[in-house]
Design goal:
With 288 residues, the chain is α/β, with parallel strands linked by helices. It has nine helices and nine strands.
Length: 288
Amino acid sequence: MGMKASAYSRGPQILGLLYEHGPLTNWGIRELIKPEMDARRVRDAMARLLERGLVLRRFEALPKNMSYFYQISAREEHRKEIGELIGVEESKLKDLRVRDQELYHSMDCAIWVESLKRTFPDGKVIRDFRLHSDPRWMEVLLMEFDDFEPKPDILLHLPKTAESPEVNIAFEIERSRKSPKRIERKLRKFAMATRIDGLIYATNDEGIQDLVRKIWLTKNSSDRLRIGHYDQNFLMFASNKPYWLNHDLFMFTAAQSARALGRWMSVLRKYERNDRRDKYFEPSAEVG
């Protein structure tokens, strides 16, 4: 069993999670924080942070009997202390808002981010609202600073090594259905106008999965010159349940062929983009 930690010493770590990921519930904090904390210790830690005015509760737009969301206080009198505790410039704590309707989506993304960090310790995992902060990610997505074109919810960047090319994977974490035109536009952007090597669409809604699959299989397939030699394995689908740290994430293609994250990533990391072929992703193919 993993180490358990005292509520007294975890305040700065909890504040760091709230800064990085936005509002979280007690449950969300327990899912993300390492070493683990039990429910009572998390409640105790949040009570102390509330008492000091360093965090606020969010009540708005929450269904009846649902847990509170907590977020870092943006009040001027607390910014300096919070900044010192988490090592962040005070000026970056002025606007930490997340829209009400995105609270649960934001927490889903937070759990994916922490899962990906532990699964790919050699990589960088970037949320959508951090993409403009580094020219490297804007170059991967071929974005400008004033660009409002579709961005992924999460970007996983694996740097180039002596054995592997640079690999960039986009993640879309979906709770609600988007319009077909918006989905088509986003898929076209990722496939044709970025340097992304693969896209994972995570949702528990089969209707959303079916809609995205249909659009991918019927729209713009002839224009995917950048990834045409492996476009059947560029887009993957997965459940929005990233509890796979001790297992391999099960995925499937738009044609509903089963794939495992570990093997899929092995192929992407073995071959340069122009050398990848759909047949290399088949379970029967060898990956050196």
